[in-house]
Specification:
Elements (H helix, E strand, L loop, with lengths): L5 E6 L2 E6 L10 H16 L5 E6 L3 E3 L20 H17 L5 E5 L2 E3 L1 H8 L2 E5 L3 E3 L13 H20 L2 E3 H7 L4 E3 L4 H13 L3 H14 L4 H15 L3 H11 L10
Parallel strand pairs: 2-3, 3-5, 4-6, 5-7, 6-8, 7-10
Antiparallel strand pairs: 1-2, 8-9
The structure holds ligand T3D.
């Protein structure tokens, strides 16, 4: 199936997914969000894909919800749109897809990541940003609160003080500041962004995929778990990892002093 507003290219085990409405800073319409969800689901089910790299075409990652989308229109009687339906169908579905993804998901953020665009990036497992990146919780500027998981992710990433500063003021946080705050993994020169993110993605695509899935699951569960429950969860997941071909290969490669060749099984 062909998609216009989201591009997909698969090579070396990496599905590169590019938000592609550069003239609108890759702002999301409802069909575009649907396309992205469909592409992510098919990448999730494709055994050739072992890592997803999400990025944006042009000078932005994404400016969030397209404010001119018909779904955002006020009725003739002046009644506001049913934003809950858009949030549910687009952003909640997207964030659930990304956070429930078994394979690593990287975001390469060049330029603006605003509103739901910022929070979609921050939902990814590893975020690499160019120096010109700007993470903007634009919601307050239009009378909304952060959605797309922002109120969940932000305090966990940067603490309440910075989360609230970002949410209430809507100021841009640039790539270097984002790295210094722990909002993202790494800030790199703009002209190296895709090379560096691509190299990371290829390395993850050649890694022990099932162990990555287990690590993601355990880390995501930790916020709601007691230490005891977390230790039990780790034991169960580690027990399963111990039975994988990749564990066997990892130990064999270590013993034979050679690089491992993980199959992702
Ligand atoms: O359903 C729901 O709505 C609830 C869910 C909400 C989730 C959200 O994401 S709410 C937040 C929505 N996003 C915003 O409020 C950001 C709006 N955009 C901006 O504030 C600015 O565009 C930026 C700070 C992101 C970038 O500024 P700048 O000066 O670099 O670029 P620009 O000139 O403003 O934008 C370039 C073009 O993109 C321009 O189009 P034009 O005039 O050249 O035809 C602009 O209108 C368009 N654009 C940018 N953001 C959006 C957009 N068009 C539609 N929707 C946008 N969000």
């Amino acid at each position: 199936m062909g998609y216009k507003s989201v591009l997909l290219e698969v090579s070396d085990g990496v599905a590169t997914v590019t938000l592609n409405r550069p003239d609108k800073l890759n702002a999301f319409t409802t069909p575009m969000a649907g396309d992205l969800i469909a592409i992510l689901k098919s990448a999730g089910a494709d055994p050739k894909v072992r890592c997803v790299l999400l990025t944006g075409a042009g000078r932005a990652f994404s400016a969030g919800q397209d404010l001119s989308d018909p779904a955002m229109a006020f009725g003739e009687d002046g009644e506001g749109p049913d934003i809950g339906t858009v949030v549910d169908g687009c952003y909640n579905a997207l964030v659930r897809t990304v956070r429930g993804f078994d394979k690593p998901v990287l975001a390469a953020v060049g330029g603006v990541a605003a509103g739901a665009g910022a929070n979609l990036a921050l939902a990814c497992d590893i975020v690499v940003a160019g120096r010109s990146a700007r993470f903007i919780q634009a919601f307050a500027k239009i009378g909304l609160l952060p959605d797309a998981g922002g109120t969940y992710m932000l305090p966990r990433l940067v603490g309440r003080a910075r989360a609230l500063g970002m949410a209430l003021l809507g100021d841009a946080v640039n790539g270097e500041q984002a790295e210094a705050w722990g909002l993202i993994w790494k800030c790199v020169d703009d002209d190296k962004l895709l090379d560096e993110a691509g190299a990371l993605a290829r390395s993850l695509a050649a890694g022990p995929t099932l162990a990555y899935a287990a690590a993601k699951r355990a880390l995501d569960a930790s916020a709601a778990n007691t230490l005891d429950r977390q230790l039990d969860l780790e034991r169960g997941l580690q027990q399963a990892c111990g039975k994988t071909a990749d564990f066997r290969e990892g130990v064999a490669a270590f013993t034979e002093k050679r690089p491992p060749r993980y199959s992702g099984s």
